[in-house]
Amino acid sequence: MIETPTEEDALDAYSTIVTSVAEKVLPSVASLRIGRAGRGSGGAGSGVVITPDGFLVTSAHVVAAGGTASATFIDGTEYQIDIVGADPLSDLAIVRARSADLHPARIGDADKLRVGQLVVAIGNPMGFSGSVTSGVVSGLGRSLATADGNGHRRFVEDVIQTDAALNPGNSGGALSDSKAQLIGVNTAVAGMGLGLAVPINSTTQAILSALMRNGRVRRAYLGIAGGTRPLPPPIAEQLGRRAGVEVHEVVAGSPAENAKLRGGDVIVSVGDVGVSNAGDLQRLMVEAKIGSRIPLTVLRADQLLSLDVVPIELK
């Protein structure tokens, strides 16, 4: 006879998973204190060790004040840290502790997450170091609006929504799965029971690598403002997708203007990659595209056209 697990058994299993994740990840999570240069305290947050030689990932807004900074770990050890680079448009940053013997978190892949999956958030909310909360993935594919100091706005795509409790100070902390793998960097509290984390996947790992290597992220720039527009049924059937990116505005003197793009055009592919929304287009504007001639397939009126564009670097 097969015994049905009791509610107590289920709770014990849940607790075992959370406890195991906490034990494995806590040594990799630091409390960060950022000093505003010449003006006292600049803020606090969390960071997660990703290499044994001292690199930590955190949120760009945590280190925005600049100045001197330190990282304190759960065992009480404290190190001075240097801000290597920050990317406000993804709300990610890299700092480096002055130590070559840290405990890195295992890196996971947020693209494999499913709604309802157990997640554990670890950080330093309200100054309470080593705090652990748990919950589930409440939603995937959310968007988080970000901006840099130059007025450039961008949506971080595929943000993870969770009901694991997040509070001020959690920013930059770890969001881990049941295998104690880092699958997100906690970034925002959007409301009661509504926390958001930037995913750790191939896209964001490329951003982190660029920050570690160069201290900044170079992005390609077209010079358009646009949004999703449904395609006419015959075109949608021909292309095998339902929508493209409608050009709402073309910036004067931009690569888009030089390529003869017009307001009302609908971009349906960049090179041989289809685009259905602004997020698709943003993801393709990587460093390798800067200065390269790229064919765009554009729907103008009822005709598909090919236009060549040469993106420049986003300043």
Note down, in words, how this protein is organized:
The chain is of the alpha+beta class and 315 residues long. The chain folds into three domains: 7-97, Beta Barrel (Thrombin, subunit H), CATH 2.40.10.10; 106-214, Thrombin, subunit H, CATH 2.40.10; 220-313, Pdz3 Domain (Roll), CATH 2.30.42.10. It contains five helices and 21 strands. It has helices at 7-25, 202-214, 233-239, 255-258, 278-284; strands spanning 29-35, 41-49, 55-58, 69-73, 78-87, 92-97, 106-107, 118-123, 131-147, 153-162, 174-177, 181-191, 194-199, 220-221, 224-230, 243-250, 266-270, 273-274, 294-300, 303-309, 312-313. The chain has a six-stranded antiparallel beta barrel. The chain has a six-stranded antiparallel barrel with strand order 8-9-10-13-12-11. Strands 15, 16, 17, 18, 19 and 20 form a six-stranded antiparallel beta sheet that branches. The N and C termini lie far apart (68 Å). The mean pLDDT is 88.
CATH superfamily of the largest domain: Trypsin-like serine proteases
Return the structural class: alpha+beta
Average pLDDT taken over every residue = 88
CATH fold annotation of the largest domain = Thrombin, subunit H
Number of domains: 3
E-strand count: 21
CATH architecture type of the largest domain: Beta Barrel
Approximate shape: globular
Low-pLDDT residue spans: none
Order of helices and strands: HEEEEEEEEEEEEEHEEHEHEEHEEE
Could you give a short account of the major beta sheet? 6 strands, antiparallel, barrel
Report, as a whole number of angstroms, the end-to-end distance: 68 Å
Helix content: 10-25%
Which strands sit side by side, in order, in the main sheet?
Answer: 1-2-3-6-5-4
Global Rg: 22 Å
Strand content: 35-45%
Supply the CATH class of the largest domain.
Mainly Beta
Number of helices: 5
